[in-house]
Amino acid sequence: MTLLRKITTSAITPALALLPGKMDSREARVLLLAIGLQESRFEHRFQIVQGRPGAKGPARGFWQFELGTAASKGGVWGVFLHPDTNSLLKAVAAARGVPASPSNIWQAIESDDVLAAGVARLLIYTDSLKLPVLGDVAGAWKLYAARCWRPGKPHPETWAGYYAQALEGINA
After folding, report:
1. How far apart are CA 124 and CA 47, in angstroms?
2. Is 13 exposed, middle or buried (0-12, 13-18, 19+ CB in 10 A)?
3. C-alpha to C-alpha distances, 13 to 7, 16, 26, 157, nearest whole angstrom
4. Bridge partners for 65 per DSSP
């Protein structure tokens, strides 16, 4: 079983099953795979701190979510506070046996890939624009880099390759 098939089977599909059906689409699945590849390559469950082996940075899970704050409305806090995702996040957390607070969810996504995929899909859902059509690499990059994840050190040079792998992954 390929890595992307494993992630889809063990994390993405179960997470999407906990959300309304309209959130499950090929476009959403490609984004989840591409973003996970970009953020962690599905290898790292916490942010690696360069030059400090074993040290954990502030991001957790394959989709590398920071806790954020109520004031910043970023990270898990952003999904928790958003009016379109608050009740959905609480339901996913409850289904995974995690108390529905940003801190508890943030801690749990390091080891709960289903919860992490659910939080990632909900963050994508907060974007006011329609999901990019399959094959729209630039549109997917804008959703990821400019509107949803907004990485501090973006790496656009790797995005197209990861997006292509994700697109192939949903067709496998």
Report:
1. 20
2. middle
3. 9, 5, 11, 28
4. 60
Cβ burial of 11 (10 Å; 0-12, 13-18, 19+) is: buried
pLDDT digits (tens, 9 = 90+) for 72-94: 999 999 999 999 999 999 999 99
Summarised one tens digit per residue, pLDDT across range 21-65 is: 999 999 999 999 999 999 999 999 999 888 888 889 999 999 999
Element housing 58 (H / E): strand 56-60
Distance (Å, whole) CA 131 – CA 31: 9
Other CB atoms within 10 Å distance of the CB of residue 83: 7
pLDDT of residue 64: 97
Which residue in 165, 75, 170 sits closest to 116, CA to CA?
A: 75
- pTM higher than 0.90: yes
3-state helix, strand and coil shares in percent for the chain, rounded to the nearest 5: 55, 5, 40
Distances (CA, A) of 172 to 44, 53, 117, 143, 167: 24, 35, 20, 24, 9
What count of Cα atoms within 13 Å lies in the side-chain half-sphere of residue 52? 6
